[in-house]
Amino acid sequence: MTKIAVLVSGGGTNLQALLDAQAGGRLTAGKISLVISSKPDAYALKRAENAGVPAVVCDRKALGSQEAFEQAIMVALASYGIDMIVLAGFMSILSKSFTDVWPERIINVHPSLIPSFCGEGYYGLRVHEAALARGVKVTGATVHFVNEIPDGGRIIAQKPVAVKPGDTPESLQLRVMQEAEWVILPLAVQAVAEAIAKRKGGVQ
Ligand code: GAR
User: Fold this and answer.
1) How far is the CA of 105 from the centre of ligand 1 (A)?
2) Catalytic site residues?
3) Which residues are within 8 A (CB) of 174 and not within 5 positions of it... i.e. 6 or more apart?
4) How close is the Cα of 89 to the center of ligand 1, in Å?
5) Are 3 and 22 in contact (CB under 8 A)?
6) Which of 27, 56, 154, 155 could staple 76 via S-S, CB 3.0–4.6 A?
7) Which positions ≥6 away from 38 have C-beta within 8 Å?
8) Is beta strand 55-57 parallel, antiparallel or unpaired with respect to 2-8?
């Protein structure tokens, strides 16, 4: 069984989608064993508590440096024996020295069809603001492996979502979450957790 850590910074609706998938028997290859928040006031922490999942705060601001922040995350991951990391609305970029330790074991959900509207500076509502400003008629979400290039790792899953006349960044964000993110993230986590469990089984 692959032990999964979900890293969050905010509302945690994608974390909730994973918790619901687990409760509904759609996420069976792994177990959500830890939630790590980069912000002490993230609502995602409440979702973890409600689901009885242990949660740790690694406060990006209080820890001062990227090195101290990543070290704190590494310590938490090690102490829970984590095998796989899911970035679900995690608003910090991880350095190469971190991502190199977890090849094809970190996945991220991004609220656009990569390679559109991605990379540094494109996160949260900003992605949808950019999509509306460009006038695209189709957007969507992507789940991908995480490497040292922001939003640059191998793509695992994508789902398109129509932009509608009169959409605001908020209405578009909600539709992308409902129709794409909350659908493809649990499916991708199940598939990757299964692959990691097989690899683990193979070396034992
Ligand atoms: C989601 O739309 C997620 O795709 C996005 O932030 C939102 C977090 O919502 N992530 C990024 O933009 C990362 N580059 P949540 O906290 O409710 O899951």
Assistant:
1) 19
2) 110
3) none
4) 3
5) no
6) 56
7) 7, 8, 9, 57, 58, 59, 60, 69, 90, 91, 92
8) unpaired
Residue pLDDT, tens place only, 122-133: 999 999 999 999
Give the start-end residues of each E strand in the chain.
Answer: 2-8, 30-37, 55-57, 84-87, 106-110, 138-145, 155-162
User: Do 80 and 5 form a contact (C-beta atoms < 8 A)?
Assistant: yes
pTM over 0.85: yes
d(CA 175, CA 171): 6
Phi-psi region at 52: left, alpha or beta (left = phi > 0; alpha = psi -120 to 50)? left
Which residue has the least CA distance to atom 9 on ligand 1? Answer: 89
Query: Distance between CA atoms of 143 and 188, rounded to whole angstroms?
Result: 7
Strand order in the sheet with 138-145: 55-57, 30-37, 2-8, 84-87, 106-110, 138-145, 155-162
Ligand 1 environment, Cβ below 6 A: 8, 10-14, 44, 88-89, 109-111, 123-124, 127, 177, 181
Quote the tokens at residue 116: 């559109």
Q: Considering only CA atoms, which residue is closest to atom 1 of ligand 1?
A: 89
Dist. CA 151 → ligand 1 center (Å): 13
Ligand 1, atom 8, lies closest to the CA of 89
Give residue-wise pLDDT tens across range 2-44: 999 999 999 999 999 999 999 999 999 999 999 999 999 999 9
